[in-house]
Predict the structure.
Amino acid sequence: MIAVFGAGAIGCWVGGMLATGDAEVTLIGRKRVMDELAGGLIVSDLSGQTRTIAPGARLHVTTDPAAAAGASIVLVTVKAAQTAGAGGELAGVVPEDATVVSFQNGVRNADVLRAALPGRRVLAAMVPWNVVQRAPGAYHRASSGKLRIDDEPANAPLLAACRAAALEIEARRDMLAVQWGKLVMNLNNAINALSGLPLATELAQQPFRRCLAAAQREALELLAIANQDVARLTALPADWMPRLLGLPDRVFRLLARKMVAIDPHARSSMWDDLQAGRPTEIDYLQGEVVALGERLGRAAPINRTLVRLVRAAETGGKRDFTGPELAAALGL
């Protein structure tokens, strides 16, 4: 059995897809989310496929962490700030021979889980795509890409479950580089949240792309100083992305469509958090870049300012910046 702990948008979509294969899946999440699944879980994607999974033999929903006691695989999909708490809850219930997989943003969550779950196998993994909730119990994968996971023997059962569900997944020996590659791409989460616009609309505007390019360039320069590799996750290497973002709108749209597909209604998870009044993951995205700069004795003014603006937005501050307004706030 596969348990998904902290099943929100990502967890429900991944868990639902795994249940369409040969896997028995238990979703463990907040009462509101689990109540919405009482009539079934709907998962859809950019190809137009829609699948409905009824609760029963293949899919179970609960709010009780103890349901993970029978799992051979536990996927952790909580927000990064909740990782230590999740590890504490799982420590008393997860079997010692279970494999725990961190399907989370950021670069430190697998280590946090290892500290909380001594003796268990904990693997790092990466989810490349955005998932949006279209209606109660209905989750839509709104961008393209494939899952990545630590290349270790313990990943074999999950790889088999993904293959049975037609979920693309790749085993990698450089997961830290993969996680940093995703983090560099995720620096747009804050910009999207502060724009208040769908991702495609925001990225179609050069002033917003200038803000993202500046944040990415700053992060990549610090990572180069730290000798930290950054994995290539799209058709272009990570250090080419700031140059692509600086192109005129028409040229950018032509090239971007060849790299990643994005649903026109998709927004970042950070935008979702602001809408719901939840704390964001800013400390684990831009904040991670700022922390890296501090360890290196270097400044990270662009990412530090984005941290400040998102924290202000969390407490009622501005979150409808135009592209020129945000660029000015960043000193661009």
Summary: The domain at 178-329 is CATH 1.10.1040.10 (N-(1-d-carboxylethyl)-l-norvaline Dehydrogenase; domain 2).
